[in-house]
Amino acid sequence: MLDFFTLPTYNALGLNALRILLSFALGLFIVLIYQWTHSKVPQRSFANTLIILCMLISVVMVVIGDSIARAFSLVGALSIIRFRTAIQDPRDIGFVFYALAVGMAVGAGNPAVAILATFLIGIIILCMYHWHQHFDKGDEFTLEICLASNNTSEKVYRQIFDKHVIQERLIEKRIKKTQVVELNFRIKLAKPLDWLTFYNELTANEDIVEVKLDKK
After folding, report:
1. Whether 165 contacts 187, CB under 8 Å
2. Residue 1 is assigned to a structural domain of this protein
3. pLDDT tens for each residue of 93-138
């Protein structure tokens, strides 16, 4: 019982404080990489979560230490948490694990591994981003069209596709409650700059009730 009230030494407090500050700095670097390589405006809440997650995991690793019992206890305690926010971009999941791995390395007492992994993985992500920016031709799009219930034949859009699309792949096909058939495609346009013409021709078709065209 007395061990519970024993105050930690100043060296232990200082070491743990340095671990938290290091995980904060590395988490901040991860967020910078995330923002630099994000195709759209990144969510501020998600960016802040990455920093907090990196620090918290380092604290969790310090608490666990070499105790298997503590590890199972924390797993049981954390299992009651339910996250309601869906992560739509698989890339965001990668950054979550990025922050988790760095936080675990700091908390486990491997700062050199944490620093090396943070900067090396970050540089690789930046290289991949600039590679895609340089070689991406901008000809890939995601297309969602809804066909009227009275005419769901492929002939409705086939003529327009043959005119503008050089490659297509049907991702999903489903029927809504209104009996409208929804088709989701991954397509490549022969002339990416003429995407508006392609969009207008689809919307002008009376048998196509809805069209959504997004750049991949």
Report:
1. yes
2. no
3. 889 889 988 988 888 888 899 999 999 999 999 998 888 777 665 5
The answer, yes or no, to whether residue 59 has pLDDT greater than 90, is no
**Are 123 and 44 members of one domain?**
yes
Query: Pick from 210, 214, 164: which is nearest to 183 by CA?
Result: 210
pLDDT at 136 (0 to 100): 62
Q: Summarize the confidence of residues 198-203 as an average pLDDT.
A: 89
Domain identity same for 104 and 180: no
- Is residue 95 within 8 Å of 50, Cβ to Cβ? yes
Q: Within a domain: residue 62? A: yes
Sequence-distant (≥ 6) Cβ neighbours of residue 148 within 8 angstroms: 180, 206, 207, 208, 209
Q: What is the mean pLDDT of residues 143-150?
A: 85
Q: What is the pTM of this model?
A: 0.64
Long-range contacts at 131-138 (CB < 8 A, ≥ 24 apart): 137/192, 138/192, 138/215
Q: Which domain holds residue 26?
A: 6-80+88-135
Q: Is the pLDDT of residue 26 over 90?
A: yes
Average pLDDT score over the chain: 81
Separation of alpha carbons 165 and 122, rounded Å = 36
